[in-house]
Structure formats: structure tokens, C-alpha cells
Design goal:
By secondary structure, the chain is α+β, with helices and mostly antiparallel strands. It is built from five helices and three strands, in the order ααβααββα. The chain has helices at about 10-20, 25-35, 40-45, 50-65, 85-110, and strands at about 40, 65-70, 75-80.
């Protein structure tokens, strides 16, 4: 039985993995995963990162589909969107199963020799 390929195109998944490959963006995702919607001011509180830098990082995360912004009055709040992360997780599971299958075949071949 062949594993199903991921539903998301590889380019979209590459954006997700790229976005999560940066320590600052990964920290932002962790904060946003805690729940709720946060302003740039809240996200930069008690950090040495400028609001401009956080804004740029959030845009990369938004382009990857990991966060979305909500406009409430004049304020812009950011929140985590788990859809693309879930797709990335499923993709890694497919890859893991493929490796398991390949390693099992290699093991069987080696034992037959």
C-alpha cells in the first residue's frame, strides 16, 4: 500500500518549514499557540526585538499560513492558525512511514544475504 501524498503542494509546505526554521519565528508561534490574539506590543514586551522586526517575522508566518491577523478597531491582533502546521505534521508522518518501509525492506534484504 502506497502512502497518500500530502494535500498541500510542496511549495506551501516548504514555506511552513522555512518559517519555522527561524528561532524568533518559532518563539512567536509558541507564544501564539498559548491561545488568544496578541498585538505587536504584547508580542515584543520583555524582549529585545523591535516591533518592526516582529512585524516582518509575523508576515513570513502569515505568508506560510501559520498566523493570521485580526483588525479590531485600529488595533491589529495576531493569532495562530493550526491548519498548515497540521498539514506539515501529516506530511512528516507520511515521510516517516516511507522511511520505515524502506528500512524494513533493507533489513529483510540484509537478512536474506
Amino acid at each position: 500500500m502506497r502512502p497518500q501524498p500530502p494535500a498541500a503542494p510542496p511549495s506551501q509546505l516548504a514555506q511552513v518549514f522555512f518559517a519555522l526554521g527561524d528561532a524568533t519565528r518559532l518563539r512567536l508561534v509558541a507564544v501564539l499557540c498559548a491561545g488568544g490574539a496578541f498585538s505587536i506590543t504584547q508580542l515584543t514586551a520583555n524582549t529585545d526585538i523591535s516591533r518592526q522586526a516582529v512585524t516582518k517575522h509575523l508576515q513570513v508566518l502569515a505568508d506560510a499560513g501559520l498566523v493570521k491577523d485580526l483588525k479590531i478597531g485600529r488595533e491589529r491582533l495576531w493569532q495562530f492558525d493550526p491548519t498548515q502546521l497540521e498539514e506539515a505534521r501529516r506530511t512528516l508522518e507520511v515521510i516517516g512511514r516511507q522511511w520505515d518501509t524502506a528500512l524494513a525492506k533493507l533489513k529483510a534484504f540484509a537478512q536474506d544475504q
